[in-house]
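Dig into these lines:

——
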Amino acid sequence: LFSSLLFYLKAHALCSSLFTMAYDSLPFKWTAETFGTKNAEMDAEHQGLFTAIDRLDKERTLAAYEALVGLVVKHFADEEKVGVPDAHKKQHAELTATASAKMAELKGGAKVDDGLVTFLKNWLKNHIKASDIPAYGH
């Protein structure tokens, strides 16, 4: 319990330092109107991330989390090939480190819970709106 609480406190601090979290209230559903970046490749990958987080929410398994993290790592590499500012790369590095730490906890027997799913949903919505859309000149 303590390690999960510590994870969410760190995750909340990470999110708060990266974004204002102004987009938490948006529905967790990818639409071009809400989350489109005008970059077809990135939009397709974002849709895949929404789908993977929905899968994690339904299944609550290590396998679903591992699949999501694999997509995230690929997506971040693809974004960085397209070109994003250093501050944007820092957000990627911080989430990757947080995700890796949580992976270790899950492999050690921790469970996927509501806090993790909510954190991931809100992180993705806020990251796209506050970082990705501006980066692609929307």
Notes: The radius of gyration is 14 Å.
